[in-house]
Amino acid sequence: MARIGIMGGTFDPIHYGHLRVGEQALREFELDEVWFMPSGNPPHKKDRHVTDVSDRCAMVRLAITGFPRFRFSDFEAKRSGETYTAQTLRLLRERYPEHTFYFIIGADSFYELQTWYHPEEILGMTTILVAGRAYRKPHISMEEQLQFLCDRFGADIRFLHFDEIDISSEHLRQMERDGRDVINYVPECVAHYITEHRLYTEERHDTED
Predict the structure, then answer these.
(1) Are 38 and 57 in contact (CB under 8 A)?
(2) Would you say 157 and 57 are in contact if contact means Cβ atoms under 8 Å apart?
(3) Buried (b) or exposed (e) across 14-31, using 16+ Cβ within 10 A?
(4) How far apart are CA 181 and CA 47, in angstroms?
(5) H/E/C letters for each residue in the chain?
(6) Is 89 exposed, middle or buried (0-12, 13-18, 19+ CB in 10 A)?
């Protein structure tokens, strides 16, 4: 039996913030492994182009090389159709009944959990680990959101003691489109992959959108 942290997301691209959150989750909650699980066809990203899943998976594989307790998982990427967290967690529990899963999210997702597909299943099947304790949404604190989710869904939610990094995948994509170097924000191997495959240039997005 193992304690497994699940880091889901588009990872478009993966960056140092993702890796640091994974490391903190390992340490703070004594996890055995963290599985980095790129989404295949995320329903909440319909309003923008998402880089092909093969490229996103390749970047994740490169980024976690050298981290012995990080694992790449194509559990969502290889599924057809839209991939929902509730379905993923249900399938994981069926396939790996011996493991205990912890779902790792950022503070922005923490405020949206109740709007996800079947939030009662998500919050009933796993412990949620939230990174970004200092984050605050207008008119509601993290403590108020925590109380709401616990009262409504009986959720088990823990906060990671993690200093937020002012970095986002969206910002990195824009930097690439502007011709700015992202080497300080992503592992060197990922930066080279982005450049080699011209992932976030205007030309590539214009032809694929």
Answers:
(1) yes
(2) no
(3) bbebbbbbbebbbeeeeb
(4) 26
(5) CCEEEEEEECCCCCCHHHHHHHHHHHHHCCCCEEEEEECCCCHHHCCCCCCCHHHHHHHHHHHCCCCCCEEECCCCCCCCCCCCHHHHHHHHHHHCCCCEEEEEEEHHHHCCHHHCCCHHHHHHHCEEEEECCCCCECCECHHHHHHHHHHHHCCCEEECCCCCCCCCHHHHHHHHHCCCCCCCCCCHHHHHHHHHHCCCCHHHHHHHC
(6) buried
Give the global pTM: 0.91
Once rounded to an integer, what is the mean pLDDT over residues 153-178? 90
- List pLDDT tens digits, range 11-48: 999 999 999 999 999 999 999 999 999 998 766 555 56
**Positive or negative, the Cα torsion across 32, 36, 60, 177?**
negative
Give the whole-angstrom CA distance, residue 159 versus residue 161: 6
pLDDT given at position 42:
61
